[in-house]
Amino acid sequence: RADQALYAAKAAGRGRCELDGGEVSDLARDLAVALTHGDVAVHFQPILQVATDDVVGVEALARWTHPERGPVSPSEFVAVAEQHGLITALGEHVLRQTCTQLAALHAATGRRLRVGVNVSGIELSDPTYPDRVRAVFADTGWPAEEVVLEVTESLLDAESATSVATLHALRDLGLKVAIDDFGTGYSSLSRLDTLPIDVLKVDHSFIAAITTSPRRTQMLRSIVALAGALGMDVVAEGVETPEQDLLLRSVGCTFEQGWLHGRPMPVAELQATLERRDGELTRATG
Ligand code: C2E
Ligand code: MG
Ligand code: MG
Ligand code: MG
């Protein structure tokens, strides 16, 4: 798999040579090497269930520290991976790491967290994707039912028959599907109706304005009601302040994710955080 990544990067490099006279993308080459060596890490950000104040889920987020440049933002290296034929290797690495690490966390603590995994449109347009995903679950023992694939609205704008068929095949395996960054793209209500969607993740940029704009507050209320009526969960992304948290609770939002409740962190830190929360709960109630 890793060799395939390196090969893909070399092939991509060759492709570029023809285009721009010898310039191979340094970042793509270094990312391919990092994938070969397992140097791309996965961090987990807590997702809080509002009704219980419990961390019931996490989002898996890829992390890469370049040997010379330092940490590279995922938005940047995911785009590089998409452009250089590395996204399949990156996506599979992240999914495999995620399932392996959360299975170990479950074995150690008895806690089974639901996990959001970001998926690129390129992965979804590949008809072999569901088979490769199924192999990861078979190898790691992690249940497909506890994975939520996060896809963006823009991806669904460019929806192809293959991607939609893939989404249905993944659903048949037991996975859930979330619309990520909801409210930033060109939202289509008919797609909310026709596509198999379990969760709406309301984008950070929208959440940022809910406490200062009464109209945004009303829109948020309507989104929560719409999701509820369609049987979808709502996750508010980028929750940073207690004021936002209070407002989200008052409109009946079911889940929250953001720095207020925890940053993305390595699995060991996540385990320590969960154990500390449990301890606080025991002291508070017992
Ligand atoms: P996303 O899926 O919307 O992930 C949420 C982003 O919001 C993350 O940025 C997270 O660190 C950040 N965030 C969380 N809480 C807060 C908050 O309270 N305030 C603010 N300002 N930001 C917050 P990150 O980790 O930089 O990832 C950026 C994007 O890169 C992700 O957006 C996702 O689209 C993409 N990405 C990350 N990992 C992967 C991956 O494994 N595969 C793919 N295809 N894309 C990935
Ligand atoms: Mg996401
Ligand atoms: Mg998002
Ligand atoms: Mg986002």
From TrEMBL:
Q: Where is the EAL domain?
A: 24-278
Q: Which domain of life is it from?
A: Bacteria
GO molecular function terms listed in the Swiss-Prot or TrEMBL record: cyclic-guanylate-specific phosphodiesterase activity
Q: Which UniProt keywords apply?
A: Membrane, Transmembrane, Transmembrane helix
Q: What is this protein called?
A: Bifunctional diguanylate cyclase/phosphodiesterase
Originating organism: Goekera deserti
Which residues of the intact protein are shown? 292 to 577 of 577
